Fold this protein.
Amino acid sequence: MNHAASDDDAERTWCLAEVDIFCDLNEAEMEDIAAAAPMKTYNAGEILYSPTQPSEVLFILKKGRVRVFRVSADGRALTTAIISPGTIFGEMVLLGQHMYDNYAEALDDTVVCVMSRADVHTYLLSDARISARITAILGQRLADLEQRLSDSVFKTVAQRVATTLVTLSTAQPSGSPLLPGGRHPQIALTHEQLAALAGTSRETCTKVLRDMADHGLLRLARGRITVLDRERLKDAAG
């Protein structure tokens, strides 16, 4: 095997090693699954699947962020999940969860491992360790979805924008308002993308963000939002 091929194999196995559903597996088991999961790249803004193009595959997100959303009867987009690297998502009918009324959109340039229906049954559902973890992940996702549906009904637009920003800035160590090196967490999203996540219009979102910036909660730059005061942002999220 040439060097490039072995690098590629290491990348693929790493892709799986980062996902907690595989944490009980040994290296050989991991390599078997990695061989069955080719990589695919999507550009920011590209749709991975939609109701008109449902996917019969499971995705494992390696790089970038993906938003899963559905569109209500009145045309409003409701974000049901923001997927970060190391997470499984896709046409969960494979796993007994119907997702075929959902859209998935790449928020950034995105790399995913793709598993077919047959591979999911062979490598995931037949292994009690993995299937138990998948069940736990889907249970948490359902709880998150119920919380978002409740937020969309009962929270104001400003609270929804603040909630979305808090969710997206939780990658830094807990208990510290700053990232390592004393940096404030930054969120790489346009106002339009954030508005879509919070279920509002771009104009309203921009107005809310400017108000938060005026009050010192965050700093705005083109395509980037820096969270300056996460505790007050949490308060604003209600």
